[in-house]
Amino acid sequence: PWSATTRFHPYAATGGVPLMDVAERYGTPAYVVDEADLRGRCRAFRAALPDADILYAAKAFLCRAMATWIREEGLGLDVCSGGELAIARSVGFPAERIVFHGNAKTPHELLEAVEYGVGRIVVDNLAEIPRLAVLVPPGRRQKVLLRVIPDIEAGAHAAIRTGGEGQKFGLSIASGDAAAAVTRVLRQPELELVGLHCHLGSQIFAAEPYEQAARVMVEQLALVRDTYGIVLPQLDLGGGQGIAYLGTEHGLTPGGYARTVVKAMEERCAALGLPVPRLTIEPGRSISGPAGLTLYRVIAVKRTLTRTFVAVDGGMSDNPRPSLYGARYTARLIGRRSTAPARQVTLVGHHCEAGDVIAESVPLPADVRPGDVVAVPATGAYHYSMASTYNLTGRPPVIAVADGAARVVVRREEIDDLLRRDVGL
Ligand code: LLP
């Protein structure tokens, strides 16, 4: 199943269901998720790293069905809000397999995490240490990881690079905060320091930053051992594995990633006389991204002096990534065969701003017309989870397809849903 990240296949997410049937039955825009493809990606990571904890990063895409699939596949869950935790709880996700993240966890979120009994809480800053410690009930110890900044720059866009100094996440090694955090956690009997964490950023294609991170982090484990005589058993290297949106990008496979990271960890541990820590990773996009696509219906085709706009019934409310990160997409006509030659068009949404572009330079048949349905691939991560109701449009449903059958796992947001919370004067 991994090939879909590196080889473009517009119909990969059909699960045996014609996409046109989905569009007609459930309407557009709609997010479609291929359950078997997604489960295959979970299994590929488990097979590549059988001795590691694979946590799916919930922020990429989470709903009850997704939490259930992740639970069934035996993965853990990285959550970063009370909301994500609530969904995990609602499907009885095993607490010990949950890791709780965040750079500004509220006291209430921390309490909920402790009460549910999450396996690990990732401490992001010094203030969090006493705040968390007081919430731990007597007789219990909360396992924690410390998030440190490895000072490595990687990731597709400045907004999604989190490994360097000068961004908001984690404890700086250079400033001494990381060392201070180790000292303070070790002084709190309510907390049990089990390891270190880092997350470099997102949409990373190269192996090299991960190699570097593994080395830097093992050196930090050695520093803790040298300073306190304690060997921390765990190392969490976060997520960030890139996927193909256009079909031309080549990412790391789980196997390639695993070989790189395990080798770097083992070599550095051998050199420093440390046992190899238990590895945790947190892939999000690389599990759910390629398993999803978005269906839109064409509303208008406008040929201007300079280009052709194909306007559809969704846009930046269901896919804010082009405007936020300059992300690029492609699209395919589905549901009918056209013999017309392909022309480059600009696929735009229905929102009230010129920046509402889904994709530039998309080759669509010259006879593309209102009523046609187009599919935009690789929208399974950071689309549903980042959707807005801009211009008071309800968010699209999520349709799961598997074994030739489609079902709604998140229903469409209707105008009544939006009006209900607007209580008026
Ligand atoms: N672990 C931590 C601590 C993270 O902050 C993230 C993502 C992940 C794991 C998962 O990263 P992934 O494997 O999905 O790259 N909205 C942006 C991406 C933001 C990523 C935030 N953190 C986008 O649409 O590109």
TrEMBL record:
The answer, when asked if Lyase is one of the entry's keywords, is yes
Listed under catalytic activity are:
meso-2,6-diaminopimelate + H(+) = L-lysine + CO2
The main enzyme category here is: lyase
Q: Which InterPro entries does the record associate with it? A: Ala_racemase/Decarboxylase_C (IPR009006), DAP_deCOOHase_LysA (IPR002986), De-COase2_N (IPR022644), De-COase2_pyr-phos_BS (IPR022653), Orn/DAP/Arg_de-COase (IPR000183), PLP-binding_barrel (IPR029066)
The biological process GO terms on file are:
lysine biosynthetic process via diaminopimelate
Extract the GO molecular function terms from the UniProt entry.
diaminopimelate decarboxylase activity; pyridoxal phosphate binding
Q: Which of this chain's residues are annotated to bind pyridoxal 5'-phosphate?
A: 240, 282-285, 382
Sorted alphabetically, the keyword list is:
Amino-acid biosynthesis, Decarboxylase, Lyase, Lysine biosynthesis, Pyridoxal phosphate
Modified positions (N6-(pyridoxal phosphate)lysine) are: 59
Q: Which positions are annotated as binding substrate?
A: 285, 321, 325, 353, 382
Name the cofactor(s). pyridoxal 5'-phosphate
> Could you say which protein family the record assigns here?
Belongs to the Orn/Lys/Arg decarboxylase class-II family. LysA subfamily.
Q: What is this protein called?
A: Diaminopimelate decarboxylase
Q: Which organism is it from?
A: Nonomuraea zeae
